[in-house]
Amino acid sequence: MKYRKIGTSPKDHRDVSVIALGAMLFGTSVEEEQSFAILDRFVEAGGTFLDTANNYAFWVNGTQGGESEALLGRWRRSRGITDEVVIATKLGGRPKTAGRDVFNPEGLSPQVIRESSARSRGNLGVDQLDLLYAHADFMDVPQQDNVDAFASLVEEGTVAMLGASNHWSWRLEKWRALAADRPSYGVIQYHHTYLRARGDVPGRRSSDGDQGLFSAELMTYLRDRPDLTLVAYSPLLSGSYVREDRPLGELHDHAGTRARLKALHEVVRETGATANQVVLSWLMGGELPVIPLVGASSVAQLNESLEAVELELTADQRALLDAAH
């Protein structure tokens, strides 16, 4: 395994594996015994970065979520896991009431931030959350209130690091300015993969577009903020790179996708690796290194992703992938 530092200051730096394991469906679609086997294999391979959220996975059984956090808590206790593994969780998206069909998220009021972070600590069985994200940006509460509430958790010691997921870049920078000398976010999480996504797909997130999509603008933001870490969720597009029964959707339906796939398949032929592995290697080893967040419903799926850590693309292969558009 390879590792990198996350965190914006020597005080909160943590070394984590260059690949993260998502636990979104652990405890619901992926039953406990299988979830434990996947987690055990990840740690055996040197993995130290896990990701969940307080609303995972409410849509499976029509609950308010928390099943994934609770399973990770049981796994930690059964394996004697302490601070050798970093567990990231998120708040803001937990439904106010149970149900599959109506999503009424809790949002980011100071009260929710405090109560939900305490609930997550209880689910995970920890006194301090390693990394806590704002799951999305809710603009119905003054951002200063959000910033102050998150900063207070770090100052009192119940959260070690802060993150922001699915925010417009200008809102990220406003958060930074409002925080001033108080604790602020050091990790950001967005949907990012090798294929470039359209930003104009009807019905995604809001009429203004999808604030969860990684963009060229966010890339320039990261170049200006090298202290930030980008975690990329859904980097393998739910199997669409390698499975004919998982066709790409509207988000990647444009001419650039054909050019990118042609380049990707050329590198697959040259390396003998799978398309998934090439995509993960491309993310991890780029000009701005990215931590891909992979899911797995079996140990075999996880092993494929883990093998990508040792795949080193040549300069020519990376240039071919980068130039395709």
Feature tags:
alpha/beta, 38% helix, 11 helices, TIM Barrel, 10 strands, two-stranded antiparallel sheet, 8-stranded parallel barrel, 325 residues
Low-confidence stretches: none
* CATH homologous group name: NADP-dependent oxidoreductase domain
**Element pattern in H and E:** EEEHEHHEHEHEHEHEHHEHH
Strand order of the largest sheet: 3-4-5-6-7-8-9-10
What is the β-strand count? 10
CATH fold-level topology: TIM Barrel
Number of contiguous helices: 11
How does the helix and strand content classify structurally? alpha/beta
Number of domains: 1
Distance between the termini: 32 Å
Rounded to an integer, what's the Rg over CA atoms? 19 Å
Structure write-up:
- By secondary structure, the chain is α/β, with parallel strands linked by helices.
- It has a single domain, classed as Alpha-Beta Barrel (TIM Barrel).
- Helix content is about 40%, strand content about 15%.
- Helix 6 links the parallel strand 7 and strand 8 (about 185-190).
- It is globular, with a radius of gyration of 19 Å.
